[in-house]
Structure formats: structure tokens, C-alpha cells
Amino acid sequence: MHLHKFEKIWLIFGGITLVAFLITLGVNAFSHGHHPPSDLSRVQPAMVDQTAPFDKPGLVKTGENKYDLNMPSFVFGYAPNEIEIPLGAEITFHTTSKDVVHGFAIPGTNVNMMVVPGHVNSATTTFKKPGDYVILCNEYCGAGHHMMMAKIVVK
């Protein structure tokens, strides 16, 4: 197979660009602590309220300055709607959906998950600055989507 000189140049340029893109993507992902979704656990969407740990939503201490925050998502809300978290604590968020696909994002952190009914997603972060943080749904979930949020107070 014969390739023209310009085809070879474009193939080499395209290959170098692809490798540079993948290296940049990998370095960026590791430096910001991004990781693939963790939806290995499953729960029946109709049974979320009766299934641990979502039967008792809220903050659970799991170790020295480590907590699990179990927050089911539902039509235009999260439970609990407002939560207080200790400053500097490592928080692992666990969430699932009772109904439709929702989003779970906390601006200014590495927490950004798609919440799919039947799947349990988790993300871990540490709040290093005190203040109020907002959990937002970033997946359109219906007419009241713009009102779907919860508040985190870090003290």
C-alpha cells in the first residue's frame, strides 16, 4: 500500500495529537482526583426507603474524621435537604434515585455524579473551607428540575 507524503504527514500529526490529548486527559484526571463512577452496588428503586443505608438518610461517622453521607434522590429533592458537616472531615457521599435520572454535583469540589435509578453511586471529598455548599441536580429530571438542590453547611 502506497501512501502519499501528505497522507503520512497527516497520519503522524493525527497520531501525535491523539497521544497528546490522552496524556493531557490522564494527567488532568489524576491531578483533580477524578475517577470512574462507582455504581457497582444496586438497589430496587421502589425499595430505596426500606433499604440500608438509605432507610436512614444522613451523616454516619465511620472513622477518625471520616463520615458517610447517605442521600437518596427523588422528585426535585434530596434527603436530608440540609446537613451540617465538620470542617476538614473526609465525606463519602452515597446516593441513588427512587424515580428518574438525577444529577448530584457540588460546585467547587470533585463531586459530580449521575444518579441512576437502581444504582448506588459514591464519591469522596474533603471540605477544607468553611461555608455553605449547594448540591445541585445537573441532569434534567422534570418540570421542577431547577428547584432540586440541598444545602451543606461546613463548620
Can you describe what's shown?
There is one protein chain. The chain has 155 residues and is α+β, with helices and mostly antiparallel strands. Helix content is 17%, strand content 35%. The strands form four sheets. Strands 1-10-7-3-2 form a five-stranded mixed sheet, with no helix packed on it. The chain has a three-stranded mixed sheet with strand order 6-12-11, with no helix packed on it. A two-stranded antiparallel ribbon has the order 4-5. Strand 2 (58-63) and strand 3 form a beta hairpin. It is elongated and about 65 Å long.
Task: List the defining traits of the structure above.
5-stranded mixed sheet; alpha+beta; 155 residues; 1 helix; 3-stranded mixed sheet; elongated
Which helices and strands appear, and what pairs or packs with what?
Layout: H1 5-31, E1 41-42, E2 58-63, E3 66-70, E4 73-74, E5 77-78, E6 82-85, E7 90-95, E8 102-105, E9 112-115, E10 119-126, E11 131-136, E12 149-154
Parallel strand pairs: 3-7, 6-12
Antiparallel strand pairs: 1-10, 2-3, 4-5, 7-10, 8-9, 11-12
Q: What is the averaged pLDDT score?
A: 90
The rough form would be described as elongated
Tell me the major beta sheet. 5 strands, mixed
Beginning-to-end CA distance, first to last residue: 67 Å
Compute the gyration radius: what is it?
20 Å
Strand order of the biggest β-sheet:
1-10-7-3-2
Uncertain segments are none
Summarize the amount of helix as a percent range. 10-25%
Secondary-structure-based class equals alpha+beta
Element-level helix/strand string: HEEEEEEEEEEEE
According to DSSP, the number of beta strands is 12
Q: Approximately how much beta-strand content do the residues carry? A: 35-45%
Number of helices: 1
